[in-house]
Write a structure and sequence with these properties.
The structure is a single chain. 40% of the residues lie in helices and 0% in strands. It has 83 residues and is mainly alpha-helical. The radius of gyration is 20 Å and the shape is extended. The protein has a domain of 41 residues. It is built from 2 helices and no strands.
Length: 83
């Protein structure tokens, strides 16, 4: 029986290391095929594919991949005004 002023079970804490995903930061996925939806920019698509593949690698190997993707996306952003 809940204590005075309580109306049900206590809220469950989120498992450690999980955070809600911020709105607007989801990678779109094509329904049914399990693949990433193309963005229209081949360099961004390649970076997203690398990120997707990194989830299958040991944590220690992921850092270099994240750094590579970060550099690639910075390069893409640097050329946005040139288009």
């Amino acid at each position: 029986m809940p204590g005075a002023g309580q109306s049900g079970p206590a809220p469950q804490a989120e498992p450690e290391g999980t955070k809600p995903e911020p709105a607007g930061f989801r990678v779109p996925v094509s329904p049914g095929d399990g693949g990433l939806e193309p963005t229209g920019e081949p360099r961004v698509d390649e970076a997203l594919a690398v990120l997707d593949e990194l989830t299958t690698r040991p944590t220690g190997d992921q850092v270099a991949g994240y750094e590579q993707v970060h550099r690639s996306l910075q390069d893409v952003l640097a050329t946005v005004d040139d288009a």
